[in-house]
Amino acid sequence: MSMEREQWKGDGQKGVKVIMVTGGQRSGKSVFAEKFALELSDRPIYLATARVFDSEMQQRVDIHKERRKERWVNLESPLYIAENEFSDRDVVLLDCLTLLATNWFFEMKESSSTALSKLKNQLEKVFSSGATFIVVTNEVGLGGISANAMQRHFADLQGAINQYVAGLAEEVYMIISGIPVKIK
Question: Which of 21, 30, 42, 114 gives 20 to 30 Å between its CA and that of 178?
Fold first, then answer.
């Protein structure tokens, strides 16, 4: 374990409480975040936010589950993540903030401002538990501005919630082609 990450071992009262892992789709974010969580805890909690609507998405979920095996406590919360209870000794991998934002965006009938308020409320509640959170998210706006209004509204929501979490985070990593770059 690196000296940098050593600070999280121990009584659960010291060190970082929010770590953000961002990057593009299929950049290696989840693999990096899972390894990070396993360095911090022998039994981390995986807080999954995906909704499965088709067989391709089910395959993605199955790959994630197979990689984690039985070493993880698995929770599924596509919207109300604050209904889960965590202690200050828990290490929680929230994977992923983008899917959580997507779920709230459509739940709030594509109102990005209402979805942002709901997201912040849920995150404030879980972060106040004192657990260490590793939050995986996507950088959706790197490819330019969409011609589609709904996509622009979602990109605005995603950008806003990413900035919010990054502002709270003690550390932020961007994964580029499988390579982690610490940006905060």
Answer: 42
| 64 counts as catalytic | yes
Whole-number Å distance between alpha carbons of 89 and 129: 10
Catalytic residue among 64, 123, 133, 135: 64
Residues in CB range of 81: below 8 A, 6 or more apart: 47, 49, 94, 100, 122, 123, 126
**CB neighbour list of residue 99: distance below 8 Å, 6 or more residues apart:** 49, 50, 51, 78
pLDDT by residue (tens digit) across 19-29? 999 998 888 99
pLDDT tens per residue across span 34-80: 999 999 999 999 999 987 778 887 787 777 777 777 789 999 999 99
- CA–CA dist 94, 136 (Å, integer): 6
CA quadruple 169, 98, 63, 80: dihedral positive or negative?
positive
Radius of gyration of the chain (CA): 16
Which is more confidently placed, 111 or 71?
111
> How far is it, in rounded angstroms, from Cα 66 to Cα 58?
12
Greater confidence (152 vs 14) lies with: 152
- Is residue 127 within 8 A of residue 99, CB to CB? The reply is no
